[in-house]
Amino acid sequence: MTKQDTATWIEKDKRQLHPVYHPKSHANPLVIERGEGVWLHTTDGQKILDGMAGLWNVNAGYGREELAKAAYDQMKDLAFTSNFSGMTNLPSIQLADKLAGFAYEGLNTTFFTSGGSEANDSAFKTARYYWKRKGKPGKYIVIARKGSYHGITLAATFATGLEKYQTMFGPAMDGFVHIHAPNPYRYEGKINAGETIGQAAARELEEAILREGQDTVAAFIAEPVMGVGGVIVPPADYFPLVRAICDKYEVLFIADEVITGFGRTGEWFALKHWNVKPDILAFAKAITSGYAQLGGIQLSDEIRGTMEAAAESEAYMHGYTYSGHAMACAVGLKNLEIMEREEFPKRARELGKRLLDGLKTLIEFPFVGDVRGLGLVCGVEIVSSKETKAADPAMTMKIFKAAQERGLRTRPLGNILAFSPPLSITEDEVDEIIKRLGAAMDGVA
Q1: CB neighbours of 319 closer than 8 A, spacing ≥ 6?
Q2: In this structure, are 52 and 81 located in the same domain?
Q3: 265: which of 282, 336, 349, 397 is 20 to 30 A away, CA to CA?
Q4: Which of 341, 361, 392 is the last residue of a domain?
Q5: CA–CA dist 390, 407 (Å, integer)
Q6: Which of 341, 368, 393 is the last residue of a domain?
Q7: Same domain for 224 and 354?
Q8: How far apart (Å, rounded) are the C-alpha atoms in residues 109 and 177?
Q9: 305 and 349, same structural domain?
Q10: What pLDDT tens digit does each residue of the chain (445 aa) get?
Q11: Under a CB-based contact definition with an 8 Å cutoff, are residues 59 and 289 in contact?
């Protein structure tokens, strides 16, 4: 295709409304025609290294014929049937069986959704359902963290701790409370004498439970590594303390592993880094490497048992048309097979270290304040002053645009440049990320 063809496509693209849309930010989009490995090809001939794996999700890389064939074969036999009570299908049975205990021991039940927002919304409803069944209907509040991102349904929007996602959709929903996240670079909460940042942030959770009242708090939700909020890797002592506090006050712990699940951080699921297990696990994105729309929640055996004991009048009246979608589940099964065969967690550990070490060499630039990451998810924080740590979103956008001009796709998140390339990336391609980002920084310096 030509640049003239691309201009025609961009004009026709105005017929659709894009996510988190503003016309200025979508005036000249890249029109992607095909992908292979970690590379995207545009209609006007550009070849771009996708340092974000789509939207944190194309773990297996682009152009996997095995996944396309899995979808095709399943759609020939059965693309879809209702998975509501009284009916099921083989791929959803097989995938639920595969996932039983896969992430964490004791999480043996899966409810399927079409993505991460639906997964977290389902987690909130499940927490409320559970406490009603336990005779505690007043427990409905969910504590989340400032800077968190949990999705874009109405409930998930107000669980999210980023105001820009909420401003135009208020008034706020009742039932969500936010506390500070344990950001080692710029923790904004109060730190008492002798406390670590992890201890201070965990104490804030306990104080919030006591302030709201133990009998009103249903759950605490957290991303093991915060994504959209700036790729925040918590201190090592944080999540063990959180788990103990949730247990002490009978609060369910919801792990939002929509980004971190399925090998991204160097473990199959990220809370394993701290030997912590949630009560509800939300997953999506990498379960199919983005080749089909699929997500879900996994429930502890205790929650499942409480559901099983319910009277018919207290049934779990929750579900989506595409819950347990046959084709999507078939793709998920094949994707898991690929990830296990190619040892994706190991690749994320080894290549993630290479990426993080490379990004740290850029700390010499006066506007690079911090570099952090876990496995193949990393963030570079851009500041106007290393001493004051003052955020510099304008410079971040300059670097983002300069990198894209050099054929590298990252994602600007305020003053952070995020990286989460496909786990299929090679050593040479990791080095190419560093090379192109360094050139972009040189170009704006």
Answers
A1: 83, 84
A2: no
A3: 397
A4: 341
A5: 29
A6: 341
A7: no
A8: 28
A9: no
A10: 666 799 999 999 999 999 999 988 888 899 999 999 999 999 999 999 999 999 999 999 999 999 999 999 999 999 999 999 899 999 999 999 999 999 999 999 999 999 999 999 999 999 999 999 999 999 999 999 999 999 999 999 999 999 999 999 999 999 999 999 999 999 999 999 999 999 999 999 999 999 999 999 999 999 999 999 999 999 999 999 999 999 999 999 999 999 999 999 999 999 999 999 999 999 999 999 999 999 999 999 999 999 999 999 999 999 999 999 999 999 999 999 999 999 999 999 999 999 999 999 999 999 999 999 999 999 999 999 999 999 999 999 999 999 999 999 999 999 999 999 999 999 999 999 999 999 999 999 8
A11: yes
Q: Give the span between the Cα atoms of 404 and 415, in whole angstroms.
A: 17
Same domain for 387 and 329, yes or no, is no
List the CATH number of the domain containing 371: 3.90.1150.10
349 and 307 fall within a common domain: no
Q: Contact 262/59 with Cβ under 8 angstroms?
A: yes
Exposed, middle or buried by CB within 10 Å (0-12, 13-18, 19+), for 144?
buried
Please count the other Cβ atoms lying within 10 Å of the Cβ belonging to residue 430: 26
- Sheet bearing 378-382, strands edge to edge: 368-373, 378-382, 416-419, 411-413
What's the CATH number where 221 sits?
3.40.640.10
User: Is 143 in contact with 220 (CB distance < 8 Å)?
Assistant: yes
SS3 state at 177: strand
Q: Are residues 129 and 264 in the same domain?
A: yes
88, 53: one domain: no
- The DSSP 8-state label assigned to residue 165 in this structure reads G
Tell me which residue range forms the domain holding 22: 3-63+343-444
Contact predicate 149/162, CB 8 Å:
yes
CA–CA dist 415, 179 (Å, integer): 21
Residue 274, C-beta contacts closer than 8 angstroms, at least 6 positions apart: 224, 236, 238, 239, 240
Specify the DSSP element, H or E, that contains 97: helix 90-99
Q: Is residue 91 domain-shared with residue 43, that is, in the same domain?
A: no
Indicate the burial class of 110 (C-beta count within 10 angstroms; 0-12, 13-18, 19 or more).
Answer: buried
| Contact (Cβ atoms closer than 8 angstroms) between residue 108 and residue 303 | no
3-state helix, strand, coil in the chain (%, to 5): 40, 15, 40
Identify the residue whose tokens are 């009048």: 313
3-class DSSP state of 370: strand
